[in-house]
UniProtKB/TrEMBL annotation:
SUPFAM superfamilies: NAD(P)-binding Rossmann-fold domains. The keyword Transmembrane helix does not apply. GO terms for biological process: fatty acid biosynthetic process. InterPro entries: NAD(P)-bd_dom_sf, Sc_DH/Rdtase_CS, SDR_fam. It comes from Pleurotus ostreatus. GO terms for molecular function: oxidoreductase activity, acting on the CH-OH group of donors, NAD or NADP as acceptor; quinone binding. Keywords: NADP. It holds the Pfam family adh_short_C2. This is Uncharacterized protein. Belongs to the short-chain dehydrogenases/reductases (SDR) family. The keyword NADP applies.
Amino acid sequence: MSTDSTPTHKVAIITGAAQGIGRAIALQLAADGLAVMISDIASKLDQLNAVAMEIQSKKGRAQVMLADVSSESDVNNLVAKTKEAFGGLDVMVANAGVAWPNSLLDVTVEEWDRLFSVNVRGVLLCYQAAARLMIEQKRGGRIIGASSIGGKKAGVMIGAYSASKFAVRSLTQTAAQEWGVHGITVNAYAPGAIETAMLRDSGAEITKGSNFDFLEHFRTKTALRRIGDPSEVASVVSMLASEKSSYITGQTITIDGGMWFD
Ligand SMILES: NC(=O)c1ccc[n+]([C@@H]2O[C@H](COP(=O)([O-])OP(=O)(O)OC[C@H]3O[C@@H](n4cnc5c(N)ncnc54)[C@H](O)[C@@H]3O)[C@@H](O)[C@H]2O)c1
């Protein structure tokens, strides 16, 4: 029997949910029956509302809340408002991330700090705020972060980005060990080349002024000879968010069409 503090439906937060992989995860988790709090930065409000309307049109439960994941108060507020709106939190997907390709010699302190404030501090803040509520709720939970294939093998022009995604793996491993005792699993996903604005914009920046075909380069590097679709990341996150992954924790799961092998 459910009580006020135990809702009949599971509840998820997805950050960076206005577009790309985050949007696909929001649609997938809502289709799985979870109530979703979808979040992004203020400039993405229209896109975020469109995602919520898409979910609601399929009879899913979605609410929108703006939050900059690099801000501790925004993230704490996001989790508190989710509890108010849906009665708790079962799944945190710390998906928001940024990428600015640059060579190591040219990376500026400003670029480095901005990248780490979103990709690493943002993930830490989401993990912490979710875990605090999940521990208080005493019903376990699923915490999931966005790493990258670049978090397993660094590459040229993505030195700072790769370092930030290696850090997500590290945080995920520590969090899994510290919070497993509370029934919380903590995992991350490591996409390869997935068809989103981030991939297209990074490719354009890396190859500007040359004839190099960035997407073709990635296509030929995969065993499956194609770029991935955001829905193919979302289906793995769906599994990580479900009971099907009950004995997986501390892992960073590669979803890259066979580009990098464990
Ligand atoms: N697309 C890929 O090929 C790929 C590969 C590996 C890893 N990833 C990772 O997957 C995640 C999603 O990537 P994507 O390709 O969908 O990117 P995207 O750029 O299309 O979407 C990222 C979303 O995050 C939001 N965001 C940025 N800064 C934020 C902040 N401070 N607070 C809240 N939201 C913020 C953006 O507004 C955007 O809506 C990222 O963490 C990315 O690093 C993507």
